[in-house]
Each structure stands twice: as C-alpha cells, then as structure tokens.
Amino acid sequence: MVPDGDQSKCAIVGRDLFHTQVEDFPRLPSTAAQPKNWKEFQEVDDPVILNYHPYMASGLPITLCEPIFADFQIGFRDCQVDKCDVDFAIELSCKMSYTFPDEDARKMAFCLLLSQYLKETFISYAFEKVSKAGKEVKPELGMGHACAYIQSSAYYIEFIRKFKQEASPVIKSRLPVFLLSLVGDSWCCLLEKAICEPLIPVGSQMASCVPRLEYIERFSDKRRVWLAEMHDEQGIKQTVIVKFVCKYSENAHRRCAELKIAPALESVVDIGYGWKIVIMEFLEGFVFLDKLAAGEIAMTQQAVLTAMNTLHKNGLVHGAVNILWRSGEVRFVDFDWADGEARYPGNMNPGINWANGVGLHKLIRIEHDQHLVKSIYKNVECTQKKLSEWHPDY
C-alpha cells in the first residue's frame, strides 16, 4: 500500500518543510529555470523538486503515488487507436515541425489543433507576475534562456505556492498535473516534496499482497529507499526498509539472511510495469561503513572478508557490495545484481573502482567481489568519501 501523504503526520511535516523551502525559490519560473538559479536550488543535497534534473533528484515512481496517474496508465494501455487519432498525430507532428516567428504563434497553432481533436477549449490560469501557467511555449528547441521542461517544473512549484496561500492549512490533494511537451510528456504530484517524472510505462498498481506501510522518512536522498512502519494482519507493527527496484535477487538475499550476513527479507513483490517493491528488516544500530571513522573502517576488514567468503562458499556472487556494520557484525545489502550466476546490468557507475574484466552484461565473478571489498581498505581516508557515493547503478 502506498503511504497516504494526506493522512501521514510525517508527510504533512515534510510538506511544511517543503513549503518553507520553496519560499526562497524564484517567483518567476523563467528566472528559476535559468541555469545559475536552477543549480543553486537543485544541485544540492536537498533539491526543491524531484524531476531528475540532476539525475539524483528522484522520488517514488509517480504512478505509485497518485491513483489518477495509475488509472491513466491502465486506460492508456487498453486504449484502441483509431484513424482519427492517427490523423491527428500526423497533422500535429507535421505542423509543429515548422518554425514559428514567436511563442504565441506556435501556442495558437498547437492549441487550435488540440482543441479541434479533443473538442474542448483550454482554460488558462494566470498568477500574479506570472504568465498563463496553462501554456508555456518555447518557439524552438534551444531558444530562450532555459529548458522548457525545467521551466514547466518551476511553474508547478509556483502553482503549489499559490495554491497553499488559498487552501486550508492541510492540503487535501496531491495536486496531480500533466505537463505536455512535444519532446516527451511528464506528470507531477505533491507528496512531502513535488515530484516531476517523464511519462513512461512504470508501475501503476501495487499487488494486494503488499503489507500496509506507513511512511516515516526517506532513508536516502539519492536512492529509492524509505523507512516505513509495516502493519501485518494482526496489527503488529515493525519498522522496515522499503526499496523500489527493477530487478532483485530474492533467493540470494534470503540465503544470505539465513547465513546472518543480510537483513531479514519480508517480501519482494512485482508491482507491475517492471517495478518491484522490496521490504526488509530495519537493522537497529547498524551503519554503513562510510559513517565510521577511518580507524574504525580499518578494524572491520577481517570480519567483512569472512562474511564475503561465506557468501561465495554458498555459490553466490554479489556484484555491488554494500556493507552495514555493528560491533563486529556484517550485513550485506543491495542484492539487485546478485545470484548464483549473474551478469552486470546495462548501466554502471564509472566512478567505482571496478575490477579488470568487469563490463556491461558480463558475468559477475567471485574475484570481482573480492576486488571491491579489498579496495575499500587500500586507502581508508579516500575510501570513506567514495563509499558515501557508492551507488553502483547510479
């Protein structure tokens, strides 16, 4: 179950912090989207909007946040395209391929075609000091002072800011919005932060077998990992880690949990369109190696090597070794690539010191894991910083 941002106290607090943050955001979207201003608010540890600009600014897959988008995805999948639809797409593509003298000319041509096709007229909403937010147009790609996608994301921030001024203290909506673009549509909604995401086929419905989860906080700002409270059918509560992934080795994780070298795995559920939700034990008192002092990291070496040897003796390879530590105990996490026989994915972080022979779609080997673990201890001070950015698949 997707945590309900309207009912969760933590999400409400998160929104309050978000509204405080956007008060410093430039009021004019055209100003906010200019590179120097966008960099100030986005290329930081706590970006204003999770719209993949830069790529670390990512949130929960948006179809898992807002039922309207989930319904749209399902409806679109079952939609039957007829001759009228095809004719419209061809006409729109052809006419929009021409150059236009200015923004208004392109806007009028586009809206006329779309209105005729939908048999609907457009309503524009004007904000103070902001042009009509319903239709932001760039006459050609590359023209103007900012990217059209970034500027439309900034319009959504201004929409949220104006909405809050006129709404009740607790907004009873996630404010779902579609951003239409000739180079690729996007959609937006508001949880504890604003999320903008390219409109691509992602999961739309969680399976009924997913336990009820109550959001606590995002565990990592750079990855899709959350801290949550899980409620079972008997009403028993348990703090868990929730992770959204496209690929995961449940067998490898469960075997390592049995060997006491991984957290207990509660469930791995396919939630559709290539997404899985992974729910695992929250390990109280365990920390990632980069949170330890340099001297403490050096003292973990023997225990980590022993745990890795145990993993290999049980016929497994990991590929993306990520390590938790507590007073002599080792736990491996991130079993996205792991298995008895496994291959590297089609994208890998070039900033990691991979072993010779590692490459896209190549077999993961024991010596590759050993190289990653040993490289941690070659230069502890340097490694400490690198481990804090240890995200093998970005």
List the helices and strands and how they pair.
Blueprint: H1 9-22, H2 29-32, H3 35-42, E1 49-50, H4 67-77, H5 83-96, H6 103-118, E2 126-127, E3 130-132, H7 148-166, E4 177-179, E5 186-190, E6 194-198, E7 212-220, E8 225-231, E9 237-245, H8 250-258, E10 265-272, E11 275-281, E12 287-288, H9 294-299, H10 301-313, E13 322-326, E14 329-333, H11 366-376, H12 380-387
Parallel strand pairs: 1-6
Antiparallel strand pairs: 2-3, 4-5, 5-6, 7-8, 8-9, 9-11, 10-11, 12-13, 13-14
Organism: Paraglomus occultum
Protein name: 7532_t:CDS:1
Notes on the structure:
- With 394 residues, the chain is an alpha+beta fold.
- The protein has three domains: 9-198, no CATH class; 212-281, 2-Layer Sandwich (Phosphorylase Kinase, domain 1); 287-387, no CATH class.
- Helices cover 34% and strands 18% of the residues.
- It contains twelve helices and 14 strands.
- Strands 7-8-9-11-10 form a five-stranded antiparallel β-sheet, with helices on one face. A four-stranded mixed β-sheet has the order 1-6-5-4, covered by helices on one side.
